[in-house]
Amino acid sequence: MSAHVPKSLFDYGRHRFDVAVECRSCGRVSVFETRDVILHYQAHGWSVALPLDASHFVCRCRSRDVLARATPIEARPRDLPPPRPVLRPLYSKPGRHSG
Length: 99
Ligand SMILES: [Zn+2]
Known about the structure:
Blueprint: H1 9-14, E1 17-23, E2 29-32, H2 34-44, E3 66-72
Antiparallel strand pairs: 1-2, 1-3
Bound molecules: zinc ion.
């Protein structure tokens, strides 16, 4: 992201960046997949424009004093477990044998 200035989270995804959320109280850094953050923000009707409104994140220390920034996908730890391919149904109808 040198010459190009990202305008939204979509630019992070396009340029292979994760979203790192850093707590200014305890220093904890949590890294999220950009696509997940976009889906979460859009589901709530929050803007994905940059600089990102990180006030929706709460650190485990309960602080909301957090900053969101880009971190390259290449920085992911090597021993990261693969993402679980969980496909959730939008809705279900009860089957013949259920109550
Ligand atoms: Zn914290």
